[in-house]
Amino acid sequence: YDTVGIMGAMVEELELLHQHVEVESTVVKAGMTFYKGRWQGKNIVFCKSGVGKVNAAVCTQALIDLGAECVLFTGVAGAVDPKLEIGDIVVSTSSIQHDMDCSPLGFAPGVIPFQELSEFPADPELVQVASVASDRLFPGRSMKGIVLSGDQFIASREKVQSLYETFHGACAEMEGASLAQVCAMNGIPYVVIRSMSDKADGSANVNFAEFTVQASNNSYRIIDEIIRNL
Ligand code: ADE
Known about the structure:
five-stranded mixed β-barrel; Rossmann fold; alpha/beta; binds adenine
C-alpha cells in the first residue's frame, strides 16, 4: 500500500501515533482533522473519528477520499468472549452492527435489510499480518474473532451474554463495523485491532478509564508492527 489510513475513536487511542508519525500536513473535513505524514517509510493518514458509527463512517470515507488504500483501526473494546481478559487483543476476522435490528420484519439480528452484506469480512492479508504481530507481541493473549459494533457502551452481564450467543462475537465496541461497511462500499481493505479495556459487564465503567491508556498502547504497538510488515 502506498498510503495507509489509521483511525481511532478517542484521544488515548491516537496519542502514540501523534508522538511517532512525522506529520507533513493537516486537512480538516467535516470538522475532523486528518494528519498526513510519514511513518517507517510509509505514507500515513490518520484521524480521531470520535465515538460511534456515524462519526466512524464519515471519518472512514474522508480517509479514503484523502488517498488511504487500506484502513486500520486501533483502539479498545469490551470483551465479549469469556476467554478474553483485560489487555488481551482481538484482530477482526469480520464485523457486524449488533444494534441493527429489523427482526419485526423477519430479518435476523444484525442483518441490514435488502443488501447482500451485513457481516463485513476483514481483509485476509491484513488479518494475517495483524495476527502475526499480535501473537508475537502478546503471546497467548491475542485471538482472531468477530467484532461487534453498536451505538451503545455495553455494561451488563446479560447483554454481553446475549451478544455472545446471538453473534458469537469476540468483543464489543462502537465503530468497527461502520468503518467496515464504508470500506466495503469503496472496495478498500480493512482490519480492526482492539485491546480489551473492560469486560463489558457491570464493572465496565470502573475498569474503562483505568485500562484504556494501557489497552490503547497495546493496540498501538501492534499497528506499529503491522506498518513495518506491510
Ligand atoms: N469500548 C470499550 N469498552 C466498551 C464497551 N463495554 N462497550 C462498547 N464499547 C466499548
